[in-house]
Automatic annotation (TrEMBL):
UniProt name for this protein: Probable receptor-like protein kinase At5g39030
Membrane topology classification: Single-pass type I membrane protein
GO molecular function: ATP binding; protein serine/threonine kinase activity; transmembrane receptor protein tyrosine kinase activity
Gene (name only): LOC107416443
Residues in Malectin-like domain copies: 34-241
Source species of the chain: Ziziphus jujuba (Chinese jujube)
Native organism taxonomy: Eukaryota, Viridiplantae, Streptophyta, Embryophyta, Tracheophyta
Length: 252
């Protein structure tokens, strides 16, 4: 009994050490990775730890608010292209539901991860919902299934990335999922990463000029939210994955 305990302790130490050595560090002020529908903390294939959204005991960790009518669910399909974390578990919502992340002021990347599948007997075509973040509508009557189908890619998962600024006096980033009438909402994973000042949203005296049209410029103030449509590595030879973003913002 005693030696078993020592043995377990040894294994625990060994695994903890390995975990510390291989985990991708967060170089930004905040990095949240929430694995929705999971009750344990799991590592994704790029060596990042995702916190299960079932427990919310740490005050500095994301908390589930309005936990009314949501439930955890496993995807009923198993696709070889789909990584386990964060895609094989989801939280599904029958009514409005808010995740609340404690954050500092400044700009944040919000990345939303979807795997359209059957969850708790609800077909992937039954999910239509809106997502808002601190007053910004990120998407409305959104169908991850229709969006992913339209992309015609062998990978059935979908990642949406947004940039939202947190004003000085706000300490909570509330991300709300609201099903359309007679529909459901779902989410597999949520990532929140803070950004340096003035990366894309900047001082008003520095307008953004287009490469192919120097005459036209746009000014994006802090009240503007952005959605990433394309990100191009200019002059780059190959795709740069999130973990290889040297600035630590996990941009792909
Ligand atoms: C968390 O997991 C427990 C046990 O699996 C379950 O009873 C509970 O409903 C879950 N909580 C949420 C918010 O999903
Ligand atoms: C999802 O699958 C895991 C592993 O098989 C299981 O432990 C868990 O209870 C399942 N969750 C739900 C909500 O069915
Ligand atoms: C976020 O949610 C909390 C708790 O419900 C609320 O007090 C706060 O005003 C919300 N913040 C925003 C910007 O909506
Ligand atoms: C959402 O989109 C679906 C499919 O296009 C449509 O049938 C439905 O009426 C829309 N619902 C709302 C509330 O716009
Ligand atoms: C990150 O970059 C290194 C060196 O170029 C490369 O070997 C590795 O495969 C990249 N990682 C990912 C996940 O793309």
């Amino acid at each position: 009994m005693h030696s078993l305990a020592i043995c377990l302790l040894f294994f625990h130490l060994l695994f903890s050490t390995i975990a510390i050595e291989t985990q991708q560090p967060c170089k930004s002020t905040e990095c949240y990775l929430l694995n929705c529908g999971s009750s344990s903390n799991l590592k994704s294939s790029d060596n990042r730890y995702w916190e299960g959204d079932n427990h919310s005991s740490f005050s500095d960790q994301p908390k589930i608010l309005e936990a009314g009518s949501s439930s955890a669910s496993n995807a009923s399909e198993k696709d070889p292209f789909v990584p386990q974390v964060p895609f094989m578990t989801a939280r599904i919502f029958l009514s409005k539901f808010t995740y609340s992340f404690p954050v500092t002021s400044g700009q944040k990347f919000i990345r939303l991860y979807f795997y359209p599948a059957t969850y708790s007997g609800h077909a992937k075509s039954q999910f239509f919902f809106s997502i808002t973040a601190n007053g910004f509508t990120l998407t409305k009557n959104f169908s991850a299934y229709l969006t992913a189908s339209a992309m015609n890619s062998p990978n059935p998962t979908l990642e949406k990335e947004f940039i939202v600024n947190m004003p000085k006096n706000e300490r909570l980033l509330n991300i709300t999922f609201n099903p359309s009438p007679s529909s459901y909402a779902f989410i597999n994973g949520i990532e929140v990463v803070s950004m340096p000042e003035n990366l894309y949203l900047g001082p008003i005296d520095k307008p953004i000029v287009f490469v192919n049209n120097m005459e036209t410029s746009i000014q994006l103030d802090m009240g503007t939210a952005l959605e990433t449509v394309y990100r191009v590595s200019v002059g780059g030879g190959q795709m740069i994955s999130g973990v290889n973003d040297t600035a630590g913002m996990f941009r792909t």
